[in-house]
Amino acid sequence: MKMDAPRISRELPRKGFKEIFYEEDFSLETCEVVDSVFDNEVIDKLRLYDVVLKDCSFVHTDFGQVDLTDVIFDGCNLSNTVLRKSSIHRVVFRNCKLVGVDFSESYFGNVGIEDSVLNLAAFGESKLEKVIFKNTALKGTDFFNCKLKNVEFQECLLDGANFSETSLKGIDIRTSTFDELLVDLKDLRGCKVSSYQAIQFASLMGLVIKD
């Protein structure tokens, strides 16, 4: 699957994240933000466009209904950050800590999450289209009642992830690992799994496999 990469300008002036408070509509455009700390804040309807954020911290910050377009998060800490009801388009999270992030009721289009920790995150009621999770830990992550289209999990840790009420038809998890998944049998139809994973699912169904 080919994903559209963020469209980032070649030259980006450097700004501090708190400069959003000097904008009328709480937005940052065409800039780079480095080593900025914005923890334990509350800000609604933030807009980021054509922005690169490196080594920034947004721990426990509430960004409800954020609009992210053409954004790269590199080495950032968004643990327990709230991004509910957000629009996230052409965005990459690389080497990020995303433990406990609340992405519920959001839309994701052309999003890459790679080499990151996404344990215990919440995606419930979200729509994900053209999304690649690569080499990322998703232990206990919640995908309840999500709509997944062209979503890939490449070499991810999915142990304990919850896919209840979420169809996995066409979703490829062959290179990922888990001991247990929460998923309804009806929603496994059409999921791309390895032969070993097929045996795992059979065991979870209570089947006894013998040669």
Q: How would you describe what is shown here?
A:
The protein is mostly beta strands and 211 residues long. It is built from 1 helix and 7 strands. The longest helix has 10 residues, at 195-204. It holds the Pfam family Pentapeptide.
Largest sheet: 7 strands, parallel
Number of helices: 1
Query: What's the number of structural domains?
Result: 1
How many runs of DSSP E, i.e. beta strands? Answer: 7
Helical fraction equals under 10%
Q: What is the N-to-C order of secondary-structure elements (H for helix, E for strand)?
A: EEEEEEEH
Q: Which structural class should the secondary elements be placed in? A: mainly beta
User: What sort of overall outline do the alpha carbons produce when their principal axes are compared?
Assistant: elongated
Determine the mean pLDDT: 93
CATH T-level topology: Pectate Lyase C-like
Give, in spatial order, the strands making up the sheet with the most strands.
Answer: 1-2-3-4-5-6-7
CATH superfamily: E3 ubiquitin-protein ligase SopA
Distance between the termini: 37 Å
* CATH hierarchy, class: Mainly Beta
Catalogue the unreliable spans.
none
